[in-house]
Each structure stands twice: as structure tokens, then as C-alpha cells.
Specification:
- The chain is α/β, with parallel strands linked by helices.
- The chain has helices at 12-23, 37-45, 64-72, 90-98, 110-121, 130-139, 146-149, 152-156, 160-170, 175-182, 186-200, 205-214, and strands spanning 3-8, 28-34, 52-56, 79-84, 103-105.
- It is globular and about 50 Å long.
- The modification 4-aspartylphosphate is found at residue 56.
Length: 224
């Protein structure tokens, strides 16, 4: 079955370019387009089945951050992949907090964009690019205090091994890289990540990264 994609961008030429790239893939289909966040919400409310939303952040009427927040608050939301012009964009950070599964630059090579779409569709999150970590590092000082949103008690639910895995996830390592670092099987790492998500009530790896920064488990620069 094809990955059903909704393109959301106020620039028609960009949507056309993305549509051409996606249409050439045997496992992808652009099922709808929208020129802003409100139109995207209308498409989804109309019952169009969507697996992944490619979401611009800066748009008229309703920006991508608020649209992402509303989409991810639904019972069974599609995955949202943010598209941004700047790799250090406070809007992109806000979208990650709102529930997006990652973000990509608009000038990303087509192969990387396609890989990101497949990754978020399969349940992974796009957190490895250095741009994501730089974004988090830059905006960490603006985060609320850890006591306000993520009490230490929440992290106390994790075992020592789970905290170790969480730290490596927050540093942008893939399951395979974590497995090699900790001398574990990739399946075991995947199990640990699943338990971390369940215990902390988080949606995906991006949420793990954000919480690690908010709680102080990881500080700006990737240190802990």
C-alpha cells in the first residue's frame, strides 16, 4: 500500500516540485494539497485518508505549528514532517513540541526527503540530522524549568539501562548505533525505546529528545 501524503505549503511551485518527486515513487501517493494550515485541517476533516503530512511552518491564516498541534491532538493522527527554509527556526522547534515527528530543510536532497517520509511512516522519527540538535541546543535556554513540565519523578520510572538508551536517543543515535555503543542487539534497543515511550507517555523519538532537553538530562551542546 502506498504512503498517502498531504502537501501543505503556501508556495504552489514548491508543492508542484514535491509532488513530482513523490509521484515518481512506487510506494508514495500525494492524495491532497493545501495552501495553509486551515486548508490542511479541512482536508483531514473531510475524511481524506492521510499517512504523512509534509507541513510548511510559515503560512498565512494558520501556521504549521498550530496546524500540527491540532492534527496531533486527534485520536489517530497522521505523522507530521515539518518543512522549513531555515535550519535554526524557532517555529520548527515549536512544531516538534507540538507533536511533529521531525523536520527537514526545503532544499534537502530528494533521497533524504523520501527517506524521512518512509521513516516517520514506519513509526520512527527524524532526529538524527545535526540541524535538529543545533535547533534544540539553541532553544534550550527558552525551555520552561524541568519542574514545570517534567518532574524528576517521571524519569525515575526508567531503569538505569533505559536512561542510558534515552541519553543516546537524545544525542541523535539510531537504534543500530545505540546497539553498537551498548553492545546490545538492535531488537533489544527497540524494546528499550518502546518502554521509554510507554513509561513517559511520549509519542516518538522526537518527543524523547525534547523531554531530555527540557528535563536537563541533556544540556545544550549534547552534554549530560
Amino acid at each position: 500500500m502506498s504512503i498517502r501524503v498531504l502537501l501543505v505549503d503556501d508556495q504552489v511551485l514548491l508543492r508542484t516540485g514535491f509532488r513530482m518527486v513523490l509521484a515518481a515513487q512506487p510506494d508514495m501517493e500525494v492524495v491532497a494539497e493545501a495552501g495553509d494550515g486551515l486548508e490542511a485541517l479541512e482536508v483531514l476533516a473531510g475524511g481524506t485518508p492521510v499517512d504523512v503530512v509534509l507541513m510548511d511552518v510559515r503560512m498565512p491564516r494558520l501556521d504549521g505549528v498550530e496546524a500540527t498541534r491540532r492534527i496531533c491532538a486527534a485520536a489517530h493522527p497522521p505523522k507530521v514532517l515539518i518543512l522549513t527554509t531555515f535550519d535554526l527556526d524557532e517555529y520548527a522547534f515549536s512544531a516538534l513540541k507540538a507533536g511533529a515527528s521531525g523536520f527537514m530543510l526545503k532544499d534537502v536532497p530528494p533521497a533524504e526527503l523520501l527517506g524521512a517520509i518512509r521513516a516517520v511512516h514506519s513509526g520512527d522519527a527524524v532526529v538524527a540530522p545535526s540541524t535538529t540538535r543545533r535547533l534544540l541546543d539553541r532553544f534550550t535556554p527558552m525551555l520552561p524549568s524541568s519542574k514545570a513540565e517534567h518532574p524528576t519523578a517521571e524519569l525515575a520510572r526508567l531503569t538505569d539501562r533505559e536512561r542510558e538508551v534515552m541519553l543516546l536517543v537524545a544525542q541523535g543515535l539510531s537504534n543500530g548505533e545505540i546497539a553498537a555503543r551498548l553492545v546490545l542487539s538492535e531488537a533489544t534497543v527497540k524494546t528499550h525505546v518502546g518502554r521509554i515511550l510507554t513509561k513517559l507517555g511520549l509519542r516518538d523519538r522526537v518527543q524523547v529528545v525534547v523531554m531530555a532537553y527540557e528535563s536537563g538530562l541533556v544540556r545544550a551542546g549534547g552534554n549530560h
